[in-house]
Amino acid sequence: MTHTLVSGLEPPYYTAVFTSVRPDDPEGYGETVQRMHERVQDVPGFLGYESARTPGGIGITVAYFRDLESLTAWRDDAEHEAAKRHGREHWYERYSVHIGRVEQSYHYER
Predict the structure, then answer these.
(1) With contact defined as beta carbons under 8 Å apart, do 40 and 23 qualify?
(2) Residue 86: partners with Cβ closer than 8 Å, 6 or more residues away
(3) Which of 41, 63, 88, 106 makes a 20 to 30 Å CA pair with 6?
(4) Which of the 8 DSSP states describes residue 46?
(5) Domain membership flag for residue 90
(6) φ and ψ at 19, to 5 degrees?
(7) Sign of CA pseudo-dihedral 31, 36, 41, 42
(8) Would 109 be classed as within a structural domain?
(9) How many CA atoms lie within 13 A of 99 on its CB side?
(10) Is residue 54 pLDDT above 80, yes or no?
């Protein structure tokens, strides 16, 4: 789970919203998430991400990318593909992915 919000991005940019249901803390999950976080940092055009999970197992991760090419590069990354495959086979009860173009963005900070 992230504890800061991504803000100050200049539109347009793209989001990949990943919503999922899985058991709390399945074996190997934390290590894989950490590795994917390290790996996505190297994708040109990656802007950041936010993630949260309810105690009941519903998770939402929003990743931000400058353009569709960078988002596609992450989607097609071989190690990321292997992690997704493992997740479908072992961790997730269900998930969905939504891709969107952000045309307007603003934030508030006290």
Answers:
(1) no
(2) 28, 32
(3) 88
(4) E
(5) yes
(6) -110, 140
(7) positive
(8) no
(9) 10
(10) yes
Pair 34, 51: CB distance under 8 Å: no
Please, which residues have CB within 8 angstroms of residue 1's CB and are 6 or more apart in sequence? 51, 52, 53
Residue length of the chain: 110
27 in any annotated domain: yes
Of residues 98, 100, 81, 78, the one with CA closest to residue 18: 98
Structure tokens at 72: 């596609």
Alpha carbon 40 to chain centroid distance?
9
Q: Based on the structure, what is the number of domains in the chain?
A: 1
Q: What CATH code is carried by the domain that includes residue 86?
A: 3.30.70.100
For the chain, the distance separating the N- and C-terminal CA atoms, rounded to the nearest angstrom, is: 22
Paired tokens of 17: 């919203």
> pLDDT tens-digit profile of 57-110?
899 999 999 999 999 999 999 999 999 999 999 999 999 999 999 999 998 888
Q: Which residue segment(s) compose the domain that 36 sits in?
A: 13-102
Query: Does any domain span residue 79?
Result: yes
